[in-house]
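Section 3.1: Structural characterization of target chains.
Under the original work plan, the team committed to producing a structural model for every single-chain target entering the pipeline before any wet-lab resources were allocated. The record below documents one such target. The sequence was received from the expression subgroup and is listed exactly as submitted; it comprises 155 residues.
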Amino acid sequence: HKTVPVRVVGSQWSVSHFFSPAHSRLSIFTEQLFRVFGETPFAMQLSIITPTHNRLNFLKETVASVQRSVTHPLDLSVQHVVHDCGSTDGTHAWLERDEAAAQLVKVFSNEKKNPGLARNEAIAHAEGEFLMPLDDDDVLLQRTAHHFVYALTQE
């Protein structure tokens, strides 16, 4: 298996992290394509990292905004990793059962953690070569993911 360097971007991130695709989770769709073609179907992948604790109402809007992201014309897939840090407001149940959360990569902790630690733990589950932090009370505009990766790939 090959180890791929991950670019960590954002003012709160001070981690240089490497991951192995063999040890990371793939979305069901991507996993099926991987079996057929032997490689991921996208040239680039962006992993959006969101820690949360007892903010389910905000989190639902955040997840919906990521799902509405438009990445065309970039050959880019978007993975959303959500780390629930011991929420007691129904977040865990929503992440496990709701159709809107089905495509998320979910990480669970039993206790509340500070956002930086939660982000770093979520990175271990990310597949993307690009990482974007997104708090649970923020939303992405439709073209944000596209412009983010486009700006990072220009020389």
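The radius of gyration is 15 Å.
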